[in-house]
Write a structure and sequence with these properties.
Elements (H helix, E strand, L loop, with lengths): L12 E8 L4 E8 L2 E4 L7 H5 L4 H6 L10 H10 L6 E3 L6 E6 L3 H12 L4 H14 L12 H12 L5 H7 L4 E6 L10 E4 L6 E2 L2 E7 L5 E9 L1 E2 H6 L4 H5 L5 E9 L13 E7 L5 E7 L7 H8 L10 E4 L24 E6 L3 E9 L10 H8 L6
Parallel strand pairs: 5-15, 7-17
Antiparallel strand pairs: 1-2, 1-4, 1-12, 2-3, 5-6, 8-11, 9-10, 9-15, 10-12, 13-14, 13-16, 16-17
Helix pairs in contact: 4-7, 5-6
Protein name: Fumarylacetoacetate hydrolase family protein
GO molecular function: hydrolase activity; metal ion binding
Organism: Paenarthrobacter ureafaciens
Length: about 375
């Protein structure tokens, strides 16, 4: 088994997409041991598959249309960058790609305190003590929208530390935004892009929930919500510029469908590890501990979907990250930012491993295969 699979890969139901160089289009596939089973004749899109009540059962009972390429071969091709060979695509297609921000109150408040205290550790300690007193159990115990959270907002505002991020971090409503256009996400082995206008940026290792049109979570994957900190830091109104650029969203390696012991409940304590390795020898390690998320998954899904907003083809929901890169790279006090050719590895026991390499956005291959191209391709696929 390739090491990109979950640790219990034999018991997991994994679906994804690969680029078929012969038919010049995407195939919906299921992982079956060392083989890839083509589901495209039955389900032209992953979105269509996830609309069923029990997609995992359908995958397990699907036919034996095995593709000529072994899983290991496709994984290796994906890492080489040779697009004349079959390679892994992002495992989602028609789903809208949404994301939640500031979902970890603990790290968010700490970041605001540190920034506003401008390196004054004594003042930071005093403010932290006041906030923790208001929250009884401390930052880790706060529930956004609660009386305690509102009191914390007042204390921070009184200290001159008001931030727009406190509203979505401590207030009743989470931040939910559209991360990337439909079909624009990249998969395992593909490059992720950093545009030339950014000089301060970082990866964001996250859990991505796969939700159908009825708002039911059907499975999950790993994601990299590439972030341009300098752009977003200038103004929250530049969020689109900071978040949505060519190859700025990576998802993969596969979607693990809920089945057996793998449920939404089992993800609540998932640990997502991050490693960044540079050609300069630099190494950064981080972690996103979902047990410390401040809002339950159901609240985030409900904020994105309901009578106020529908997604006929379902949606993917990035759930935010605890990780904030503060480790210096080039000089003391300058923190972290990406360099060309950085290798970003995001992994977790239940979801596998997503690997991408950083490149200049402007030098990457343009995104050309959109919804129209997909529909034209599927028109030629013979359905079962």
């Amino acid at each position: 088994m390739p090491d990109i699979l979950p640790s219990d890969g034999a018991d997991s139901v994994l679906v994804g997409r690969i680029w078929d160089p012969n038919s010049q289009g995407p195939r919906v596939v299921a992982v079956r041991g060392e083989e890839l089973v083509d589901l495209t004749p039955m389900f032209g899109t992953v979105s269509e598959l996830l609309e069923n009540d029990d997609p995992a059962d359908l995958v397990l009972s699907s036919g034996s249309n095995v593709l000529p390429w072994a899983l290991e071969e496709v994984v290796q091709n994906s890492a080489t960058g040779d697009r004349n060979l079959p390679f892994l695509l992002a495992p989602l297609d028609l789903q809208v790609i949404k994301a939640c921000g500031v979902t970890f109150v603990e790290s968010m408040v700490e970041r605001v305190i540190e920034e506003r205290c401008e390196g004054d550790f004594n003042r930071a300690a005093e403010v932290r003590k006041s906030v923790n007193k208001a929250l009884d159990g401390g930052l880790a115990s706060v529930r956004p929208g609660s009386k305690q959270a509102l009191e914390a907002k007042k204390i921070l505002a009184a200290q001159g530390m008001w931030s727009q991020y406190l509203e979505v971090g401590l207030g009743p409503d989470p931040e939910v935004f559209t991360k990337a256009p439909v079909l624009s996400a990249v998969g395992y082995g593909s490059g992720v892009g950093i545009p030339a206008f950014s000089s301060w940026n970082n990866p964001e290792p996250e859990l991505v929930l796969m939700v159908d049109s009825a708002g039911r979570v059907k499975g999950a994957a790993l994601g990299n919500d590439v972030n341009l900190r300098d752009v977003e830091g200038r103004s929250a109104l530049l969020l689109g510029m900071a978040k949505d650029n060519n190859a700025s969203c990576a998802v993969g390696p596969f979607i693990r469908l809920f089945h057996g012991g793998f449920t939404l409940e089992s993800l609540r304590t998932e640990e997502i590890a991050l490693t960044v390795e540079g050609v300069d020898g630099y190494r950064l390690e981080g972690r996103n501990s979902l047990s410390r998320i401040s809002r339950p998954f159901e609240e985030l899904v409900t904020a994105a979907h309901g009578r106020h907003h529908q997604y006929p083809d379902g949606f993917a929901l990035f759930t935010g990250t605890l990780f904030a890169p503060t480790q210096d790279r080039d000089a003391e006090g300058l923190g972290f930012t990406h360099k060309n050719a950085d290798v970003v590895t995001i992994s977790s026991a239940q979801l596998g491993t997503l690997v991408n390499q950083v490149h200049a956005t402007e030098d990457m291959e343009p995104w050309t295969f959109g919804i129209g191209a997909l529909f034209s391709y599927l028109a030629g696929v013979k359905k079962v």
